[in-house]
């Protein structure tokens, strides 16, 4: 992997909660801080394009994400994205050829102790370096084909269709 392009779109991974868990905003992307703290041995660029909860990402936003990734020189792209509509965005990104694109996020904000953010990012970084071109989802310690996975909201995890 020459260089990793990281596209951030918001989602729980970047959320900041205030007085209670229902009052939040999407903060600065956390992935650069996480990768710096972990001392990774690869170069990366962070391209922040949205700060939205994925329930508020629409077709125009997905097209912006697709166009942004398609315009990058990098062949390896990691996308941080909210989990609720990650699969829908992955299906739009499948139209991009010649790149390995891995979407990941978190079920708990990266700022929370015990968040799954670092684990999911690590899984996604390994996947984006080793998989052939295509679009994948890295969540819950697994790599998923977006056409064969869904988020089980009640169980708060991804599972095969």
Automatic annotation (TrEMBL):
<dbReference type="GO" id="GO:0004067">
    <property type="term" value="F:asparaginase activity"/>
</dbReference>
<feature type="domain" description="L-asparaginase N-terminal">
    <location>
        <begin position="4"/>
        <end position="152"/>
    </location>
</feature>
<dbReference type="Pfam" id="PF00710">
    <property type="entry name" value="Asparaginase"/>
</dbReference>
<dbReference type="InterPro" id="IPR006034">
    <property type="entry name" value="Asparaginase/glutaminase-like"/>
</dbReference>
<keyword id="KW-0378">Hydrolase</keyword>
<dbReference type="InterPro" id="IPR027474">
    <property type="entry name" value="L-asparaginase_N"/>
</dbReference>
<protein>
    <submittedName>
        <fullName>Asparaginase domain-containing protein</fullName>
        <ecNumber>3.5.1.1</ecNumber>
    </submittedName>
</protein>
<dbReference type="InterPro" id="IPR037152">
    <property type="entry name" value="L-asparaginase_N_sf"/>
</dbReference>
<dbReference type="InterPro" id="IPR036152">
    <property type="entry name" value="Asp/glu_Ase-like_sf"/>
</dbReference>
């Amino acid at each position: 992997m020459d260089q990793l392009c990281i596209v951030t779109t918001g989602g729980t991974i970047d959320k900041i909660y205030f007085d209670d868990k229902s009052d939040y905003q999407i903060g600065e992307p956390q992935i650069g801080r996480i990768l710096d703290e972990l001392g990774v041995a690869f170069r990366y660029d962070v391209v922040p394009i949205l700060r939205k909860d994925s329930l508020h990402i629409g077709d125009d936003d997905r097209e912006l994400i697709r166009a942004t990734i398609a315009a990058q020189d990098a062949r390896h792209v990691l996308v941080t994205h909210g989990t609720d509509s990650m699969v829908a965005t992955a299906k739009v990104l499948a139209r991009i050829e010649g790149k390995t694109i891995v979407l990941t996020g978190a079920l708990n904000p990266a700022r929370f102790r015990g968040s799954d953010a670092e684990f999911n990012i690590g899984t996604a970084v390994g996947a984006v370096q080793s998989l052939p071109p295509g679009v994948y989802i890295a969540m819950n310690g697994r790599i998923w084909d977006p056409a064969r996975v869904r988020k089980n909201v009640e169980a708060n995890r991804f599972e095969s269709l």
